[in-house]
Amino acid sequence: MTVYGVQDAYEASLSIDGLDLVVSKTAFKEITVRSGLHRDLPTIFIHFDDKGSLAVRHIGTADGKSAQVYLNDGRNGVGYSGTFVLMGGAKCTISPHGIDAQYSGVLDAVPWMRKVSDAHFKGTSAEMMAMLGAQAGLGAVTSATSDFMTWLPNRRTLSQQARFVAERGYAGPTSCMIMAVTGNKTLLYRNVEDIMNGGSSKLFDHAGKGIRVWQFEVASKAGAYNHSAAYGASTMGDKITGEFLELGKTALAQFSNLGVSSALAGQTGKYGGRISPFPVNPGNVFEKYIDAQHQNRRIKSTYSNDIHIMTDTASGVELMDKVTYLCADPMTLDTLEVFSGEFMITNKVITLRDGRYYEKLTLTNQG
Q: For labelling, which of 39, 83, 155, 278 has a CA lying 20 to 30 Å from the CA of 239?
């Protein structure tokens, strides 16, 4: 593919069904790649003016056709390359320059969303994840877990089965298992504790000592998360032995200077705002099967503080990377300690718009 661009602004190339498109500032309105912990697969959105309808004649509605994309910042940053399958949602209308064309697609790992998991698997949840990913052509990076058992398929798609397993994954009394698929076709299945105990991969700040941040937005989800699970939730039910099991408070590792409020935690009462029943353990699952569901849900809910940052640098960071962010007053550049610290990347948006490269990253920590 031919790479087009403007120095210090962007570099890009795009090929759809073997047709190389001229990614110019005047023709291309937007190319956006999105990935995140709450997406089954990364997605792409393409919007351009097709002068003379040359591209549309070849591409048509593009359903099922392959798109290869390369995006960079025009300054020797860490560029992104990926292959996507265009599917559904094509929109073509008359524009002053020809045809205004819009296409959407998903990462070239469609079996992840469509193939049904139809066989049992004996092993740990980490081993199970690697096996599921391989069926969709995904590599896997996993944390070690202590949850050996026979996992039954129950006719779920690969992605549905993976989320089912992740919710029950267990690595220890303070573990919290999360999963995501990156834009380079890697399935990540990590223990949040391992991520936050590791080193930071990049520094983001407003002064240019690290990767320069041009805009930030603090968005807390603490109200809903804390009420439903983080501060007040209990799980209750009968064990196969006939004993009554009550799971309430959960131990967790504290990584944030934003703070998990012990004052609020102490006001939720003995059982908290939610009481979740569980069925009788049939005895064919690992010992901490119910405990894992309880603590994964509760610990994940403490990660309720998001900071969205925007940069025009191709950062090279990936989902679940641990980074350091130094937030600053926009006028004085004095550090705002309350919003600064170490975070993990939970959402990444790469976009080329109006001839400029941007990244929007969601940094998440406890609160």
A: 155
As a whole number of angstroms, the distance between CA 24 and CA 22 comes to 6
DSSP class per residue in 129-185: HHHHHHHTT-EEEE------EEE--TT-BHHHHHHHHHTT--SSTT--EEEEE-TTS
Q: Are 168 and 293 in contact (CB under 8 A)?
A: yes
Q: Which residues pair with 86 in a beta bridge?
A: 105
Whole-number CA gyration radius for the chain = 23
The pTM of this model reads 0.88
Q: For residue range 204-256, what is the model confidence (pLDDT) as tens digits?
A: 999 999 999 999 999 987 665 555 555 556 665 656 665 656 566 555 565 55
Parallel/antiparallel/unpaired status of strands 28-36 and 43-51: antiparallel
Query: Residue 148, Cβ neighbours under 10 Å: how many?
Result: 12
- Which of 200-204, 210-214, 264-268, 293-297 has the least mean pLDDT? 264-268
| Cβ proximity of 115 and 138 under 8 Å | no
Lowest mean pLDDT among 54-58, 98-102, 254-258, 362-366: 254-258
Say which residues have a Cβ less than 8 Å from residue 267's Cβ, sequence separation at least 6. none
Query: Which one-letter DSSP state was computed for residue 338?
Result: G
Q: Which helix (H) or strand (E) holds 295?
A: helix 289-302
